[in-house]
Amino acid sequence: MNEHILETRQLKENYQTNNEQILKVESLKKKYHNQTVLQNINLSLNAHDVYALVGINGSGKTTLLSILSGLVHSDEGTIHIDKKIKKENPTGFAFQPTSLYPYLSGKDNIDLLSPRPSNAYEILNRLNQSEKILSKKVKKLSFGQKQRLGLSIALSKEANLYLLDEPTNGLDVASCKNLVEIIKDMASNGSAFIIASHEWDIIEQCCNRLGMIYNGTIRKELDTFQGISEVNLPIIQMKTLNPIRKEEIETIVDVFECVELDDQTWRLTISSEQSVQTVQQLLIMKNILIQEWINIKPVQEWENLYNQWVKEEDINARNI
């Protein structure tokens, strides 16, 4: 079995077997000027969880993160964040980079705002452009450079829970990739994340759970484990002309995971893109007659589901 498969299975076991709860939110509510912004929010996160919070503008994402960070008070509900491991900094948060000191350099901001400047310098170096960011005054930095600086300070705190609001805004492709790796590294060491984002590709790469928020309520949650692997493993939905046994598929070494949808429909996770055709040929050699063979992109399914769901909610609301 190849190294990527072994690594991914180990990651999956960590996520599925861990029971150390980091965050528990119950019946959270918030109003602004008699307008309900959040209603009956219930959410729990364990160590290692990377939770994507997805919603259209005005759905309540930033308000929820602001309450969890302590910047805004809720009207009702309870929030418990585990402080047993890291009492000094139970949470770290990065919203839009407006809280930096504009007339100080990036280095001065780190030294003033980060409890562990050496961690912040290391993270900033991984996010690129560290020399320019450290030497210039913040007011002269681009939005993307300010974003890197704010993220470096937030992620340097060695917290149990990190709250990131649109963290990839202003970042180039290479920096986004590096940020994903940083998040995955920190999650593997036991921290939990909530990431509010519209970037479905980023969600696929680093999140194991997805919450869809609409009109101030988390209406649906999904297990998106496909995103936490070191590689995005291809998923195939296969329909056969005749019923087959699961064991016939599982004996193929390049099949990472096999899920039975019914006795003739299967969802296969393949070890690599290069192995997809090989798996198909081996199935045919086993006299398994394939009627359908569809490549499934999880990120497309999630986005289509959310868009369709929001559309149906709007139609229902207009009919009330």
From TrEMBL:
Q: Which SUPFAM superfamilies does the protein's record reference?
A: P-loop containing nucleoside triphosphate hydrolases (SSF52540)
A Pfam family cross-referenced in the UniProt record is ABC_tran
- The coiled-coil segments of this chain are none
Q: Which domain of life is it from?
A: Bacteria
| SMART domains referenced in this protein's UniProt entry, alphabetically | AAA
Q: Which GO terms describe its molecular function?
A: ATP binding
Give the Gene3D superfamilies listed for this entry: P-loop containing nucleotide triphosphate hydrolases
Q: Does the keyword Nucleotide-binding apply?
A: yes
Designated name of the protein: ABC transporter ATP-binding protein
Pinpoint the ABC transporter domain residues: 23-240
- Which keywords appear in this protein's UniProt record, sorted alphabetically? ATP-binding, Nucleotide-binding, Transport
